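ASSEMBLY PREDICTION REQUEST
Request ID: AP-0331
Submitted by: J.K., bench scientist
Number of chains: three
Total residues: 753
Priority: normal
Notes: Please return the full assembly, not individual chains.
Input sequences:
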Amino acid sequence: MSPRRPGGRWASLAQTTLPVITLALATTTLYGALFYAPREKVMGDVQRIFYFHAPAGLVCFLAFFVTFVASIGYLATRRPGWDIAGRASTEAGLLLTTIVLVTGPLWARPVWGTYWTWEARLTTTLVLWLIYMGYLLVRRYTEDPDQQARFAAVVGIIGFIDVPIVYMSVHWWRGHHPQVLAVSGGGGLDPTMRQVFLMGIFTYLALYASLMALRIPLGRAEAELRWLRLKLGERPARRAASGLRASG
Amino acid sequence: MTVRSPAALDLATPGTGSAVERRRRLSGPVREARKALLVWQKDVRVEWRSLDSLPAMFFFALLVLVIFNFGFDLSSARFSDFGPGVLWVAFAFSGVLAFGNSFALERDADCIQGLRLAPVDPGSLYLGKLLANCTSMLIVEAAVLPLCAVMFDYDLAASIGPMSVVLLVHTVGFGAVGTLFGGMTARTRRGDVLLPILLFSISVPFMLSAVRLTGAALAGEPISEAPAAAWLVMAGVFDLVFIAAAYLTFEYILEE
Amino acid sequence: MAGGEGGGSGSSPLSIVASGLTRRYGPIQALDRIDLRLAKADFLTVLGPNGAGKTTLLKLFACLLRPTSGSLQIFGLDPAAAPDAVKRRVGMIGHASLLYAGLTARDNLLFYGRLYDVDRPAARAQELLVQVGLSPRADDLVRTFSSGMTQRLAIARALIHDPDLLLLDEPYAGLDREACRILSGILRQERERGRTLVMVTHRTEEALEVSTRFAVLARGRLTCQAQAEGASREALERLYRDGAGEALS
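STATUS: Completed
Returned structure:
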């Protein structure tokens, strides 16, 4: 039985509409971040990066949670769809994590004079990035596709279990929450700031959904290609089973 | 900890055997524990006879210490600042050797298939390997620490109690993850490179905790009080969490 | 050779019942709807070209692999549902020796004996060491053994828990004449004790000596089966040619 054909009506719909939605939301967030939100009192305009930095951090946790669920799903059912979803989510999550790791230093430099500080949130994100790169590396270095899926699933599970542990230990290590913002995430935000922050979250959610909508059918196509390659690699003319019984 | 046979985890398979089989499985935990100890004993015996792994681990750890000394000039006054970090880097790298060797042993003559043929839970095999790896690491740590005391001129005896606790708790945690990934990377390409990548990124919490607590122990801070005690409890909990997770997922590593 | 498939005498209980047994890797059928019934004390030799799926078949019987579809019963048990119970009654000798080179012969047997919950493992180990002729070297490291001695110890390892079903994957490979003789003797003895044996081999002389049934596996399909009573080498070659479409090497 060959894998289900990639695409289908819903997938195509998602592939066209989600990126458009993402673009719309991104534009709105951009406007909100640059013009609508007030100027932050301590850091000034540089603080506006926050609207691109923090939401990415939140949505990447979601991505890795999806990988966790997909990993369990695969190990329990062995349906390739779970594996494809897990891989897609990890790749999307890594992209978002990279955004956090790039916007963080861009923000830190004007504010603290240095590109990188080992402050808790950035360090945690870096460790997460390394863990999930490990997920992709395991896939790359495992030949057998079934083994690849299983090993990746195990890394996806162990990695996600580690996420809160890393978060806790890095924060304890750092002793206290440094002044990332004059107003820290969500709690004491000015209402307009909160609105833009929410827009940022929706934008990244839409981005994540777009990436999934594009990557999953691609994954199915890859699986189908692999299937066909294996099939063609079989010996050609299959002789009909003779079913003869020996006599004499 | 309940013992779960592979059949119980495969949701697609109907039924779990007759009532007789189930009853036998229930009394299984003791039997499975014995088998884990068997695997441990076998690994220890092989290592004892061949001394393949331990000398390499020991010398590697020593080498790391020496190199760091040239890099940082670890004088005794500042040893409790840099020492813990250096020590744990040394232990971590020699641990990687242990995990790699542990499964290389099973690759020879395809012994891993012998283990898979036997009526043993994969989880028990994992626990046996974990015990063996922890044993190797603890032996190396016990050998390296006194040498460290001599090389960097600090009084080990004063902190031996807390140090032992810290070493034990963190070696088990590191070993829990290392044994799982060691088994995995034994079957991938470039497993020798993959293992440290996977292991060190996941083990960041253990390293942080280990260094913090080792520093506390060396500086004479009582580890039974906050804040050190909090770290110790956290490390202990993480040990259990990772052992449980690895125990449950090891069968997926072993599968063909 | 008498034609026809089916287990031995009608009333004896069956050790293996495979029905529509299939094992797939993606689009590749390693085993395609295998139907097989083996009675106790049957000795089935499976012949076939390389890549026909013979090792896969043995691995399915040994509970190392799960079938993709179809049913398999070993001694009335379902390997997927009760793997440990089945594994206790199955022994396998594969291409690799499955022995720890860093342990002595006796230690290897003791380890596996205890792993299989054998009663009085030390006595059993000694008994087997004598049976395969390795008693004088029992306390030497396996690392120091010749390949023939290693194979003999591998046989002892496979028998340590007195399995009712013995699976053999090219067991004669690399054995000298003496070791072949010992092996055939052991296999005949096991069959006489009522054990079921399934062997994959290219060595037709030895197979003719010990087997009760033959089957040909080609491209995942079991194409021919036959009883081995009074079989000659020519008849076997004919069977193979019919089943595999090529000459027996």
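REVIEWER COMMENTS: Helices of chain A lie at 9-36, 50-77, 80-112, 120-141, 145-174, 191-233.
SIGN-OFF: pending second reviewer
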